[in-house]
Amino acid sequence: MARRPLVMGNWKLNGSKAFTKELIEGLKAELANVNGCDVAIAPPVMYLAEAETALAGSKIVLGAQNVDVNVKGAFTGDISTEMLKDFGAKYIIIGHSERRTYHKESDEFIAKKFAALKEAGLVPVLCIGESEAENEAGKTEEVCARQIDAVINALGVEAFNGAVIAYEPIWAIGTGKSATPAQAQAVHAFIRGHIAAKSQVVADQVIIQYGGSVNDANAAELFTQPDIDGALVGGASLKAPAFAVIVKAAAAAKN
Ligand code: PGA
Q1: Can you tell me which atom of ligand 1 is nearest the CA of 98?
Q2: For a surface tag, which of 26, 104, 111, 148 has the fewest beta carbons within 10 Å of its beta carbon?
């Protein structure tokens, strides 16, 4: 079955009010006539209000980079699903390797975030992927399976209906060292197969993005691969022309 590609920008800890407005104006101009690809951006939550206003009337969808498992109460510094919904955010990144590393987020905790998002009717963008050492030790599939199984064990495979997985090898994030299309495709096929072992129907519809140094020069080739359904883009999402090239490449390759 045909899956509609999703290209999402992860701005990480970058931007300002002015930058948010300017980048979104640039994206709106560049992408006005592009169809056949869903597009989302995840600015820092500080700028969701500016982003929501700037995105009015555009098909670009708002997202966020993280969420807490609690909906309200004494949880200093956290942001809830309801708050994100209040700004119209839909695609919410969880389990990014930077959060797994710097904030010690476990597979089980990330599965709870996945549950909170499903409960709220939001779309989890679950980041998974192996470190360089794990890759060299031949543990890529084992790590990806473990990170996916944490969600399946807690919520069942059906939780991946309408959800997004971003395969992001940690050695490729922010390094300029993207996985090759063939390397990425092999892991994407493994991930889809792992889910298909529980439910072919769920596996056929789940969006599996590739992330890790996707840019305007390498995107088109990555999107030729059958199990690469779009991209989660960090650095190259901070420049409207580069991000637009990636979106257009996905729209062209998948339609
Ligand atoms: P990158 O980041 O495109 O800068 O490698 C991707 C990500 O971390 O989502």
Answers
A1: 8
A2: 104
